[in-house]
Write a structure and sequence with these properties.
Layout: E1 2-7, H1 14-28, E2 32-38, E3 48-49, E4 57-65, H2 71-81, E5 86-88, H3 100-110, E6 116-117, E7 121-126, E8 128-129, E9 132-133, E10 152-158, H4 164-170, E11 183-185, H5 186-191
Parallel strand pairs: 1-4, 2-4
Antiparallel strand pairs: 2-3, 5-11, 6-11, 7-10, 8-9
């Protein structure tokens, strides 16, 4: 498994926090090989292998710096570092539901004609926004995945469209695919020229 983190002018300490968490995982899982490669400051090749033996499971964390500001540039730059055929995409503030990646990877292996598959999503926010208190009954369902989610509440659920005809029609008006929920074939995105960096 490879995790590519793209630093797009991050100044909130979240990348350093992720690196610390990754090192913490490496110390608590001796049966997994962990590798960190911070490409942001390197001049030549670098390999910080945290493995302790002959493990069969390996996880690498690659950190890269986007050459220019903007989401599309960051996505294109990060995509260049991805070694796998299938790429799952997320923003720093997104939470993955349990089994999402396994379900999507399984679907993509069984359905080679699909290039992109997304999921339904839940838009959530902090408990208080502009003085408004959100209903306690709509608490984020994955409260055991991340810290402080007892203060996060559902704003809106979005069911993904599963009918191909309706999806094609809806795409005429708006993007109906929740981008942070997708897994896609890297080659298909590259054949399209990647993300359009002229669109802000």
């Amino acid at each position: 498994m490879q995790i590519v983190v793209v630093d797009d002018r991050c100044n909130d300490g979240s990348i350093d926090a992720m690196i610390r968490s990754f090192y913490g995982l490496a110390q608590s899982h001796e049966d997994i090989s962990f590798t960190v490669q911070d490409h942001r400051f390197e001049i030549g090749p670098q390999n910080n292998d945290l493995s302790t033996g002959d493990e069969c499971i390996s996880i690498s964390l690659d950190i890269v710096k986007s050459p220019r500001a903007g989401v599309a540039c960051a996505l294109n730059h990060g995509l260049g570092y991805c070694r796998a055929d299938l790429v799952a995409r997320m923003d720093a503030d997104d939470i993955v539901a349990p089994q999402r990646l396994l379900s999507q990877i399984g679907f993509m292996h069984v359905n080679p004609s699909f290039d992109v598959v997304g999921t339904s999503t839940v838009l959530f926010s902090a408990r208080s926004k502009g003085g408004k208190q959100y209903n306690q009954s709509s608490i984020l369902p994955y409260h055991n995945i991340t810290q402080n989610t007892e203060s996060c509440y559902v704003l809106r659920s979005s069911l993904s469209i599963s009918d191909p005809g309706f999806m094609a029609w809806a795409m005429l008006f708006t993007c109906t695919v929740s981008h942070p929920s997708v897994i896609f074939r890297k080659k298909a995105i590259q054949e399209l020229g990647g993300y359009d960096e002229s669109i802000s």
